[in-house]
Amino acid sequence: MSQGEYEKEISWDNPTYQVIIDYVYPGDKIEYFQEEMENEEYLSQIKELQSVVNALPTSFSDNLGDYLKTTEWYDGIPDKESVAAPLRMLNYTKVEGQPLQCVGFAILLAGLKYEGINFQNVGGAYSFGSGAFPAKTATELIPFELISDEYAEIAATGYGGIALGSKDMSIEDYEAGDFFVRTDIGRLNNGVSPTGGDITFRTGHIGAIIGKKIVDGEVVLLVADANGENDGKIRIFEVTERNFYKIFGNPGTKKFIIRATSSK
Known about the structure:
By secondary structure, this protein is an alpha+beta fold.
């Protein structure tokens, strides 16, 4: 793999917040998926959705789902019925300064049912797979047994598909159509486990693997997420070995994948 834009010298003695963000989220500096972004219809549609959402001011407080239905992006959706429920959900999830949340983006991607990629629908999930309340955070999309048992590596989600978890997850383990979930970041929440015990957990973060390829013998992932910088915006970026831990969690941190096991 040739040296690209990500391989730049960074002074870590006194890094600014923006330097850290630029390192973790390369933004739109697509180096290895340029051709696919132009030719793959589903990637072009995600890019168009990104443009629509990212044009919104952080002060946006209207119903996001209703607004999206007024755009040319929505006009180009062939199966509008499949996105009706995700768009309604976006109307009810509002955080000041953050027009789009990461979980809402994941639900929307699954509802779009793009040709060429299959995302597990995480809408309708209950907390930790089998809890009494609907899941409201990314962390709650992971079955409790995977979180509570550091050695457990696979479990049914309770809402379709499977969840994988391992401290030894490598970049090769991720596939296009997967959702990655981090449970080690975000604000602290108090909740109840499916077994009835009180627990404290972080809200976490979820994003989508929208492409995977081999370049010079090395895996490169194309990733999309929303609200990664707490600004409600969609980001599309590449992950290689060089920024793998920055995106998916440090060495020794258990990493999680949600994967569809059936066709749309």
